[in-house]
């Protein structure tokens, strides 16, 4: 595997995860999943499909999640949500008992400051963004497809972290995960018009292709929103992987739907390692 600025690979029993190095060094377990090492046929045998309960057997997804969570030291509870391509952010409380991955929460970002809870979002081309604030111990996982990016869900997550935990953007470290990148992600006029109406800099994000179409750079859009919200450029890390190009590593809704009629889901997770005050102590 090639060496990556800002990220490192971790592997166990054939399951590989991409870890944000700075986020980890600042006290947050985190990772972006990949496709191999699972027991699911979504889209082909051996897939580590980590979500999509209405398409795959729940038993497959639970087993794949168990294998994925083995990559993280210690005991973790996983919290996910029913994603609806909106801009709502939910808080996961540490005192909540029982399962947190019940998909009862309809939203597209989860935030917590409780230790040993991994908040996670599922993607297969959309942009996953992980946030960590080492000062307060708060973190967030954000699902930002084109709709969520247009609705500025990442700034919404930062605002919620500020309201709940006193997070200052200057203390935040951000990791933007593998997604359909500008090399491949062509959109039509309905998307182009939304971005042109909302963002004066939309043309920086759009590369015209054929009539009424353009390739869009959603990683850049989210990087720009993070910076505008006050996150330092040096603390924003973007994984240089396109889910559509890299069929060896990732699921892609666009690619796999065409090839197989179905796809698996990746999971991006982040969680606080220890009690408040002990962050950074171990590493
Ligand atoms: Zn690509």
Summarize this entry quickly.
24% of the residues lie in helices and 27% in strands.
CATH C-level category of the largest domain: Alpha Beta
Summarize the biggest pleated sheet: 6 strands, mixed
| Percentage of residues in DSSP E strands | 25-35%
Report the end-to-end length measured between terminal Cα atoms: 24 Å
Oligomer: single chain
- CATH topology grouping of the largest domain: CNF1/YfiH-like putative cysteine hydrolases
Write down the secondary-structure element order. Answer: EEHEEHEEEEEEHHEEHHEEHEHE
Shape: globular
Number of strands: 16
- Average pLDDT confidence is 93
Going across the major beta sheet, what is the strand order?
A: 1-2-3-16-8-5
- Which ions, cofactors or small ligands are bound in this entry? zinc ion
Q: What structural class should be given to the helix and strand makeup?
A: alpha+beta
Q: Any idea what the CATH architecture of the largest domain is?
A: 4-Layer Sandwich
Q: How many distinct folded domains?
A: 2
Q: Helical segment tally?
A: 8
Please tell me how large the radius of gyration is: 18 Å
């Amino acid at each position: 595997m090639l060496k990556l600025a800002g990220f490192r690979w971790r592997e166990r029993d054939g399951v590989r995860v991409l870890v944000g190095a700075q986020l980890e060094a600042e006290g947050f377990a985190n990772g972006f999943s990949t496709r191999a090492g699972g027991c699911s046929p979504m889209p082909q045998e051996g897939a580590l499909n980590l979500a999509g309960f209405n398409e795959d057997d729940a038993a497959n997804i639970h087993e794949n999640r168990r294998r994925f969570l083995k990559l993280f030291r210690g005991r973790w509870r996983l919290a996910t949500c029913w994603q609806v391509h909106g801009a709502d952010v939910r808080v996961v409380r540490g005192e909540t008992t029982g399962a947190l991955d019940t998909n009862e929460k309809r939203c597209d970002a989860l935030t917590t400051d409780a230790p040993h809870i991994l908040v996670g979002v599922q993607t297969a081309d959309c942009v996953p963004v992980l946030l960590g604030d080492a000062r307060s111990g708060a973190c967030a996982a954000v699902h930002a497809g084109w709709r969520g990016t247009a609705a500025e869900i990442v700034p919404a997550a930062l605002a919620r972290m500020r309201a709940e935990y006193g997070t200052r953007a200057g203390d935040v470290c951000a990791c933007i995960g593998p997604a359909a990148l500008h090399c491949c992600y062509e959109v039509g006029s309905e998307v182009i018009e939304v971005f042109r109406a909302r963002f004066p800099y939309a043309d920086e994000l759009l590369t015209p292709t054929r009539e009424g179409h353009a390739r869009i750079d959603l990683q850049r859009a989210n990087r720009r929103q993070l910076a505008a919200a006050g996150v330092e450029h040096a603390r924003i890390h973007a994984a240089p992987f396109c889910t559509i190009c890299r069929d060896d590593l990732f699921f892609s809704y666009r690619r796999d739907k065409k090839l197989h009629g179905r796809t698996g889901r990746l999971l991006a997770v982040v969680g606080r390692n220890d009690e408040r005050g002990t962050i950074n102590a171990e590493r």
